[in-house]
Specification:
It is a single chain. By secondary structure, the chain is of the alpha/beta class. The chain has one domain: Response regulator (Rossmann fold, 3-Layer(aba) Sandwich). 42% of the residues lie in helices and 19% in strands. The protein contains 5 helices and 5 strands. The chain has a 5-stranded parallel beta sheet, sandwiched between helices. Helix 1 links the parallel strand 1 and strand 2. Helix 3 packs parallel to helix 4. The radius of gyration is 13 Å and the shape is globular. It starts with 6 loop residues before the first strand and ends with a helix.
Length: 124
């Protein structure tokens, strides 16, 4: 299996989602980093410099909106696409408010996950 050399960070406090997404993405050659909170998010992301970030709305402690806004205010990190994901019915509004590039509603199937990641990579 060829490695894509691509890195992704998943911020979610749901261990099941982290393990499922990690398994699927690693199978496709991604290097996956997972965090169950968004504390020190700028330092964490700067240390990894991923190609894509998956951000849960309900991530401790500050929440996905504040975490995403922190990244988007940082000159070095603001170009990294953020995919906002949540079970909220108003996810599109939340993603827009956060400044995320796109969103993925929970529950999602793995094809949706792959499509949304590929879509943001193509736009870069």
């Amino acid at each position: 299996m060829s490695k894509t050399g691509k890195k992704i960070i998943i911020f979610d406090d749901d261990e099941d989602i982290l393990s499922i997404c990690s398994y699927i993405l690693e199978e496709q050659g991604w290097e996956v980093f997972t965090f169950t909170n968004c504390n020190n998010i700028v330092d964490r992301v700067a240390g990894i410099l991923p190609d894509v970030i998956l951000m849960d709305n309900w991530i401790p402690d500050d929440g996905g909106i504040m975490a995403t806004q922190s990244l988007k205010m940082n000159e070095a990190l603001k170009a990294i696409p953020v995919i906002y994901f949540s079970a909220n019915s108003d996810i599109q509004l939340l993603a827009d408010h956060a400044g995320a590039e796109t969103y993925l509603a929970k529950p999602f199937d793995l094809e949706d996950l792959e499509q949304v990641i590929n879509a943001v990579l193509i736009k870069q």
